[in-house]
Recover the amino acids of this structure.
């Protein structure tokens, strides 16, 4: 199994990431931007051409005198980005510049266990290969909805992922496709995606809040993902907000996630429908047999008082936790993503209100709190970025 990058040294890594982010550049432009002596640059370029990661792409525009040669990433480079949610699988193949080649998503239950879910991921990727989307993969990035040992490439005691504890995700995928693999939790890859290609582009101090089946927070400090000593930084869904609240999937009582994760919202919405407190939800329950977060969002848009209250109650609890983080970390932006971000501006307004009211004025004077620009693609974009960083010699 090829788990070692072919890239040798920081100059080569910087060169590859520059070509990823800007496209083809001349040798002269590369020397200027990387600020390295031309002989050193030429040696590194020759080495990367030999690995097949880059190629020459004809003469550059004249800058006076002899024209330089353009250099670009090999157009055959391919990365696989996999975003596993509690109830979904999303897979995307990208080229070396992270432009999508093909993509596919389907419902799935993460509780089916690692063998079932990863077998399905394998089937999707082999189908992509059979269709000609790639000949070989140069790296795979994958996010999972639970705590991950980033160093070991395994989930660790994930509350909503029975059977996944310490399962060798990196090893299994790497052996199947003979390429390097990087594993992270889903909120980290979403934050990486949003910072790379979304509303938080190049923001160095960022909180990315994922509100979905679970609740988590991706943390960027000084331009780097902060994962903590053991990889579980940002697991704010298990901060207690009500000592008399319901039992959470983690076994504790009154966690934020137990009060306003996807399951909690469905529970409270169903109770409101059955009690008759919400005519809008009662109508949907009678028609469909279940109520969902989208039903709550639709009911709120129709002016249903109970739906609006459910969203505001959740936003108030989330905002209270975020307010503490804002005073502690002092980020320059907060981005809200995940499935429940679809609850829209009622949720966003409530979170903003609490954060601005309860955090230090100095920390909130210039603090945008915004919805994700990438939406459901944030995870696969981030997984692709991680895969490219691995292949280009700079694991995040």
């Amino acid at each position: 199994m090829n788990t070692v990058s072919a890239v040798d040294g920081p100059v080569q890594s910087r060169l590859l990431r520059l070509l990823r982010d800007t496209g083809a550049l001349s040798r002269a432009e590369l020397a200027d931007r990387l600020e390295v002596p031309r002989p050193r640059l030429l040696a590194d370029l020759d080495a990367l051409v030999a690995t097949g990661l880059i190629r020459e792409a004809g003469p550059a525009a004249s800058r006076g005198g002899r024209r330089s040669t353009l250099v670009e990433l090999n157009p055959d480079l391919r990365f696989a980005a996999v975003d596993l949610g509690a109830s979904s699988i999303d897979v995307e193949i990208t080229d070396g510049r992270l432009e999508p080649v093909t993509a596919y998503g389907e419902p799935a239950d993460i509780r089916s266990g690692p063998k079932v879910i990863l077998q399905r991921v394998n089937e999707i990727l082999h189908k992509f290969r059979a269709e000609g989307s790639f000949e070989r993969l140069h790296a795979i990035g994958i996010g999972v909805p639970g705590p991950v040992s980033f160093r070991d490439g395994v989930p660790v005691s994930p509350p909503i992922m029975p059977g996944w504890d310490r399962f060798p995700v990196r090893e299994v995928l790497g052996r199947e496709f003979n390429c390097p693999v990087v594993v992270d939790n889903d909120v980290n890859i979403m934050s990486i995606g949003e910072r790379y290609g979304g509303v938080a582009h190049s923001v160095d101090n960022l909180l990315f809040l994922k509100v979905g089946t679970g609740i988590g927070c991706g943390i960027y400090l000084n331009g780097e993902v902060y994962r903590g000593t053991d990889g579980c930084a940002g697991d704010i869904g298990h901060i207690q907000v009500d000592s008399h609240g319901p039992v959470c999937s983690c076994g504790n009582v009154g966690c934020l996630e137990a009060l306003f994760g996807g399951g909690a919202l469905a529970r409270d919405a169903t109770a409101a429908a059955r009690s008759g407190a919400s005519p809008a939800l009662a109508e949907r329950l009678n028609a469909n047999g279940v109520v969902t977060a989208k039903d709550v969002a639709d009911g709120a848009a129709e002016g249903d008082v109970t739906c609006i209250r459910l969203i505001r109650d959740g936003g108030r609890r989330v905002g209270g936790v975020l307010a503490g983080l804002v005073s502690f970390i002092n980020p320059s932006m907060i981005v809200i993503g995940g499935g429940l971000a679809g609850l829209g501006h009622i949720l966003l307004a409530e979170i903003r209100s609490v954060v601005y009211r309860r955090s230090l004025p100095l920390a909130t004077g210039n603090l945008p709190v915004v919805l994700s620009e990438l939406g459901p693609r944030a995870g696969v974009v981030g997984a692709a970025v991680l895969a490219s960083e691995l292949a280009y010699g700079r694991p995040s």
Remarks:
- The first strand starts at residue 25 and ends at 26.
- The chain has three domains: 10-73, 79-193+378-391, 203-372.
